[in-house]
Amino acid sequence: MRIRVINPNTTAAMTDKIGTAALHVARPGTEIIAVNPLSGPVSIESHFDEAVAAIGVCEEIRAGEQAGTDAYVIACFGDPGLYAARELTRAPVIGIAEAAFHMASLIATRFSIVTTLGRTGIIAERLLDEYGMAVRCRKVRAAEIPVLELEHNPRAAFERIVAESLRAKAEDNIGAIVLGCGGMANLTDAISAAVGLPVVEGVTAAVALAEAMVSLKLQTSKFGDLDTPPAKAFVGQFSHFSR
């Protein structure tokens, strides 16, 4: 089984960390291909960042189709380009936010999300509504750390995430924490030990779900809005999308 794990930002060190976390939970025989676009934002912290990153996600899906890929993971908590990516393949495409929400709902009746910045927390709230999970989430909390602090100042970032997770445990009446950034993929065990709650992280959750879907022979439906996009001409820098 071959799973392409797409970090939608262009920070290669974060891609390596995400790939390592994915490999840690993958079944024997599962091949993890961790990639990131060559062009795009170095981190994703806004709607604009997501819009630009979605093009890179689609490029990586197209590359994965040529390489023969069984499933895809979009390793950014905003799930940028998720539906567009699903249009481009029959293979399962799983966003890490959607995966984390579902996994957390299976182990706790209520969870809180601890993410990076307050503005990205608003994006997470929109996804909770879109995925029908708002009723299961007590609160979206921000540690107020830029995404790249997870790379440049990991100890301080870890301490801020733990502190916010402890506040969630004390105040939110929850049973689990969801980590709201793909760059936190390597922190699950350490945060869980420090906080004393189950901690769900989306990259590893998405890999496990992708393996299950491939084993069940479940593919993206091509009946309705996720059918292959209509053939048409694209111009300018997107002319290579023409079909």
UniProtKB/TrEMBL annotation:
InterPro entries per UniProt: Asp/Glu/hydantoin_racemase (IPR015942), Hydantoin_racemase-like (IPR052186), Iso_Racemase_Enz_sf (IPR053714)
**The organism's place on the tree of life at top rank:** Bacteria
Catalyzed reactions per annotation:
D-5-benzylhydantoin = L-5-benzylhydantoin; a D-5-monosubstituted hydantoin = a L-5-monosubstituted hydantoin; D-5-isobutylhydantoin = L-5-isobutylhydantoin
Q: What is its EC number?
A: 5.1.99.5
Task: Give the Gene Ontology MF terms in alphabetical order.
Answer: amino-acid racemase activity; hydantoin racemase activity
In the record, the note on similarity to other proteins reads: Belongs to the HyuE racemase family.
* Name used for this protein in its record: Hydantoin racemase
Provide the species name. Answer: Amantichitinum ursilacus
